[in-house]
Specification:
Elements (H helix, E strand, L loop, with lengths): L1 E3 L8 E2 L7 E3 L4 E6 L32 E7 L7 E11 L2 E6 L20 E8 L10 E3 L5 E3 L3 E7 L6 E2 L4 E2 L2 E3 L10 E5 L7 E7 L16 E10 L8 E3 L3 E8 L2 H20 L3 H10 L4 E6 L8 E8 L11
Parallel strand pairs: 1-4, 3-5
Antiparallel strand pairs: 2-12, 4-17, 5-16, 6-15, 6-17, 7-8, 8-9, 9-10, 11-14, 11-16, 13-14, 15-18, 18-19, 19-21, 20-21
Helix pairs in contact: 1-2
């Protein structure tokens, strides 16, 4: 199996000018070894998020969220959709979260001064599960609290059409730093393609994350990711889509949050009309009446230029009577 090693997974931009690191065929699985969002800087509580101490933070924007790629997919053309099956994610031995002055929405808090007057790094030990690996392991938040490791890929996408965007704050129809917890094992990601070969990148694995990633960092960790690619020829998408075994999710990123929610819902309605042969009236009424329709707020971080990321989700059980088309 072809592999991008961790030493190679050190790009900080989605750039159509990059030379591909791998060339793969549809149906071929590849492995990408990823750094954590801090490129290995955070190892102990003493490694604090002081910008002057962090390599690459003297640049604007800072070098964070390293990604591996690009990967060239044979047969991919502008106007196609790239289908990415996430086959496996295994995380490292620990993860971290870092807070401090001017970091996140409470980085200038006067109500809780400890959040804004000093830097804090928390390191979370990962414990292997019954399989002997981290695939079914647990994350130890503190001596009393732990939970199952629920890994996902935080930054994923293809090269944008014309611009070059960074892995720390780049977001768009092509993907980017979206921190969507449903970009996880067993799910299929759909992304529109703008260049021959698609030019695919990924990185920024998380061991777990709550809705919104409120502090601006979650359980950041290194990982080993296995993905497989396919194509849907000449199919237009308004933004990323996710197919889960039991549901479908339409994504949008924007500010304010209301715009992200409204756009994601419109994208889902269009999906139901185009692919499930629902009438506009049926689709519009379904999202307003179905008790299982959900809005997921994946990322809502008040930091820099990041948009807010929402997903509109509906279970497949309500779509099974319908005729699905490509």
């Amino acid at each position: 199996m072809q592999t991008i090693t961790r030493d190679q997974a050190s790009k900080f931009a989605f750039d159509w000018r990059d030379e591909p690191l791998l060339r793969v065929a549809c149906g071929e699985s590849v492995t990408i070894e990823t750094w954590d969002a801090g490129s290995g800087f955070f190892k102990t509580p003493d490694d604090q998020a002081i910008p002057a101490n962090r390599p690459g933070f003297d640049q604007n924007p800072p070098l964070a969220n390293p990604i591996g790629g690009p990967i060239y997919i044979d047969g991919a053309e502008r106007g196609d959709v790239l289908l990415i099956d996430i086959e496996d994610i295994e995380v490292g031995d620990y993860s971290w979260v870092a807070i401090g002055p001017k970091r996140g929405p409470l980085g200038e808090s006067t109500r809780w001064p400890e959040l804004s007057d000093r830097y804090t790094t928390k390191i979370f030990k990962h414990n292997p599960g019954p399989s002997g690996t981290m695939r079914d392991g647990t994350m130890q938040f503190n001596e009393l609290i732990s939970w199952p490791i629920t890994p996902f890929i935080g930054t994923i996408g293809v090269a944008p059409e014309r611009e070059v965007t960074t892995s720390i704050d780049g977001q768009g129809i092509w993907g980017g730093n979206l921190d969507i917890r449903d970009v996880a094992v067993g799910n299929q990601i759909h992304l529109p393609i703008f260049h021959s070969g698609a030019l695919f990148y990924l990185g920024d694995v998380h061991a777990s994350q709550g809705d919104t990633e409120y502090t601006g960092t979650a359980a950041e960790t290194c990982g080993t990711v296995q993905v497989k690619f396919d194509l849907r020829k000449q199919k237009q998408l308004p933004f990323m889509r996710i197919e889960k075994p039991e549901s479908i999710v339409a994504i949008h990123a924007a500010r304010p949050l209301e715009l992200a929610v409204d756009s994601a819902t419109r994208h889902l309605i269009a999906w139901l009309i185009d692919q499930y042969a629902m009438s506009p009236t049926e689709a519009y009424c379904l999202v307003s009446t179905c008790p299982d329709f959900r809005i997921n707020v994946y990322q809502m971080v008040n930091m820099g230029k990041l948009s807010f990321v929402a997903g509109a989700e509906i279970p497949r059980k309500h779509l099974s009577p319908l005729v699905q088309s490509d």
